[in-house]
Structure prediction request, 541 residues.
Amino acid sequence: MIDVEKATTTRSDATTAVLKGMGDALGVDARGLVFSESVIEPPYDLETLCLLLEHSNSLRPNVDAYATNIDGFGHKLLPAIDFDAEDADERVAECIFLERLAAQERGDLAEEAALEPTEDEVRARRDELRRLARVERARLMSFFESCTFDHSFVDLRRMTRQDLEVTGNATWECLRDARGRLGRFVHVPSYTVRLLPLDKDPVEVEDRVRVSPVSLQSARVRRRLRRYVQVDGTHRVYFKSLGDPRVVSRKTGRVFESVEALKKEDLSDGPASELLHFTIYSSRSPYGVPRWIGTLLSVLGSRAMEEVNHSYFDNKSVPPLALLVSGGKIAKTSAPRIERFVEEELKGKDNFHKLLIIEAEPFGKGDGARTRVDIKPLTGAQQQDALFQEYDSRNIDKVGSSFRVPALLRGDSKDFNRSVADAQLIFAEDQVFAPERDSFDHVMNRRILADLGIRFWRFRSQTPVTRDPERLTVSIEKLVRVGVLTPEEGRALAEDVFNTEFRKLPDDWVKKPITLTLAGIQNAMSDREPGAPGAASEESE
Prediction:
């Protein structure tokens, strides 16, 4: 059974012992291997939180609902500018203006220089950007197909979401290629990672700021960074934060001036990799805290209830029948015969009407000696069904409320009609899953794609089709038919409905309301009819 005190106490003796043992393994101060700072203690024992997931009957459905609906549908790449759109020239002209304005503020462009581009400049720049965007998309597609080793990027996201929801923390090891560009992501189990304090001295790092929809500008900023250590038994590996330009030892965590200085200290040592740390924010710790931690006693209570009900089958104390003898005693041979009869000869349809004959001997002799034998059922004193069912049901609802996941997504499909189910799915998508998806997308665009130098594309997580495709199709058809939407806009909405990408149509009619297109066709046909204005002159010619 789970140790309740170990799991619920913020600084429990068990957690303190684990952290103290980790400090001894690090050799802090005792061996002088690293530095005087110790690791920061997590507010809860991370391995115990992982163990609770395996022992709980309510955590897994909620965590799986998050992983599936937030990260399980993949992603798509959205263009910063659609160069085939009707307003592409205006967007490109705006980009040129913003880039020149930024260059003027940096002093790279004279103040008297013109900021507004000419039509020829816009046309040439649009053709150039279109070619660069096509190359960048191919590069980005290749990156996401091969950025993990043993599984897909979707699998990496699902494992990350599980770690994040169970322990409040998740980590990726970010590996770079020979040119210093991000190449691979490796999932690091969150329960093995510990945080070191923020470095006292700030470090100058490179940050890429977007100055226009299709251009990035490098900026130098000073930040206090953090280092990390992964502890597996007595083995330890150090990491640095993503974007940290310093040379950090992967064996000791020390900072060196260069790789040569690191190798001079220890030939078997090497530079530390970078780590990307995801958290569920906690106001009292740099570690994240899982959102269900307030219902921890409910999780433990349901587990205790399950164990009580399970132990009933092996440890029940009330027999089904009692044999009562008054005024005498049963024969010596009757007791083992009764036990054998109940255990072996009452089963099966052939023994349905089989009788049990019990012999009893009176204590006295004569006509007044009477012996009475009664068989009393004790089923009323036995446990008829599992105990604490209402308590367990309330605990499951409490845990689900902490995740804000409707019962339908947790696998409870009782007493639901279609309207209630649709309302629950829409609520979960709008209020729970979409914000979490946007938060992850921000990290990908701001940290990963910016580090890769991606300018023309944005990372966007796919959403489940929680809407009724048939209803939306009818609505889009009506809006296109009356001219509120153009066919091109209708196709864009249909892409979101069906989570697929349609082929771009180069024709001009898709960019105009369908009513104007049909009116033009009718006018052209009427002009060619005999007797129509202009038809006679055409025939005479």
Q: What stands out?
A: The chain has a mean pLDDT of 82. Residues 467-541 form one domain.
